[in-house]
Design goal:
Layout: H1 6-17, H2 40-52, H3 54-59, H4 66-70, E1 76-78, E2 92-99, H5 107-120, E3 124-126, H6 145-157, E4 160-169, E5 172-180, E6 186-191, H7 197-204, E7 214-217, E8 220-224, H8 233-241, E9 246-251, H9 257-266, E10 269-274, E11 278-282, E12 288-293, E13 301-308, E14 312-315, H10 322-330, E15 335-341, E16 346-351, H11 358-364, H12 370-384
Parallel strand pairs: 2-3, 3-4, 8-9, 9-10
Antiparallel strand pairs: 1-13, 2-13, 4-5, 5-6, 7-8, 10-11, 11-12, 14-16, 15-16
Helix pairs in contact: 5-6
Length: 390
């Protein structure tokens, strides 16, 4: 056996020889107790599934290693594919992250950069936190010069724009992300829930926001968090509970693994746009897809990426092997298992051809997406505690 074949062979043997675990909870307060279901029929189904499914036939037998087993980032494409709407597979969304150091660029320069990116074509363009700076003179209202300039460009290029500003509302001041729709209208305003205490609240009288914001755009549901918000998981959980498919994170810094942790926990795409300037993009399973830094070489970073909002992530519980096995067998030309994550107990499905929705097919075959399964599990477990719900 050649060296290149050894990883695949080891993976195949491990997959076929290791007993598949079916987990159940025994004590909701003391944590999970892992129990094996000793049913021979389940083991035989597992073996048959591994032999016949896409992951069993392709990833193992063509000699791919551990990277293929974990899954590649095929749900995202750098830049913007030129395919027509009739050729689009899945639900592609074109995202631009335009990073620069806030307060160091005049509005004319910012508008010119957004104009250039809009001319290429985009579904949503994001610029960094308080893009005009945060100082004694930077506060402006929603009808001020920055939002007005971005509004004209959003309408000109028929794109959404995330425009973070030091916002004033009467005597109050906020660190806000303003979303403009394709007509240049204000679609929603998110006020940073956790401003940096001394730098913002004390020194600049910035008030904390009061709630998360998830907007139903024409391409999907988009939510927002800003900079220091990365440290409070309750924000990110609420974004998930409100159905966010993409979270835009304007920031002064990169956050790195702190940001990645939120993508891993809550399973939406996450795109940053920072003063550094850099951009991190995380997949729905938390895998880092992109980290670009100062790619223009002039303290400017522009990241263009196309994300497929139809890709969907599942827990193996209750979905594997029967439901997903039947789906992959009966609709092999329509949907593929793109990732299989043994350690997490997850897998990702995607559409293979135009006109097909992996999410819709999965629902039709009775599969339940990961965030829905976890939320339902929480409710059912709480019922086991004896809690009553009206």
């Amino acid at each position: 056996m050649s060296t290149s074949e050894e990883p695949a062979a080891r993976l195949r043997r491990a997959a076929l020889d290791a007993p598949r675990q079916f987990w159940q909870t025994d004590s909701v307060l003391d944590g999970y107790i892992w129990q094996r279901e000793g049913n021979v029929n389940n083991e035989m189904k597992r073996r048959q599934f591994l032999k016949e499914s896409a992951i069993g036939v392709s990833a193992f037998t063509v000699g791919l290693g551990a990277d293929a087993r974990a899954g590649s980032a095929t749900g995202a494409a750098r830049g913007f594919p030129s395919e027509s709407s009739g050729e689009r597979v899945g639900r592609p969304v074109r995202v631009v992250s335009l990073g620069f150091h806030a307060g160091k660029r005049p509005l004319e320069w910012i508008a010119n950069q957004v104009d250039q990116e809009g001319a290429v074509g985009a579904d949503i363009i994001a610029i960094p936190e308080t893009c005009r700076g945060l100082n004694e003179t930077s506060a402006e209202s929603l009808d001020g010069p920055t939002v007005s300039a971005m509004s004209r460009l959003a309408k000109k290029h028929r794109t959404y724009i995330v425009c973070p500003i030091h916002r004033k509302d009467g005597s109050q001041r906020f660190n806000s992300a303003v979303l403009l729709d394709r007509e240049g209208r204000v679609a929603c305003v998110y006020d940073k829930l956790y401003p940096v205490w001394v730098e913002e609240c004390v020194d600049r009288s910035v008030r904390p926001g009061t709630g998360v914001c998830v907007h139903q755009a024409d391409f999907g549901r988009v939510g927002f968090a800003i900079c220091f918000d990365v440290n409070w998981s309750s924000i990110w959980e609420q974004l998930s509970n409100q159905g966010a498919e993409l979270v835009i994170w304007p920031s002064a810094y990169s956050a790195g693994r702190s940001l990645q942790a939120q993508a891993i926990s809550y399973n939406y795409y996450l795109v940053s746009v920072t003063w550094v300037p850099d951009c991190l993009v995380f997949d729905i399973d938390g895998q880092q897809l992109v980290h670009d830094t100062n790619d223009r070489g002039d303290d400017t970073n522009v990241t263009r990426i196309t994300l497929d909002f139809d890709r969907c992530i599942f827990h193996q519980d209750l979905n594997y092997p029967d439901k997903v096995g039947r789906l992959l067998k009966e609709r092999a030309e329509d949907v593929a298992q793109e990732k299989w994550m043994d350690m997490e107990g997850w897998f990702v499905l995607k559409a293979k051809r135009p006109g097909v929705s992996a999410r819709e097919l999965a629902r039709n075959y009775g599969l339940e997406e990961l965030r829905h399964y976890l939320n339902r599990s929480r409710c059912e477990i709480d019922k086991c505690r004896g809690w009553e719900f009206s």
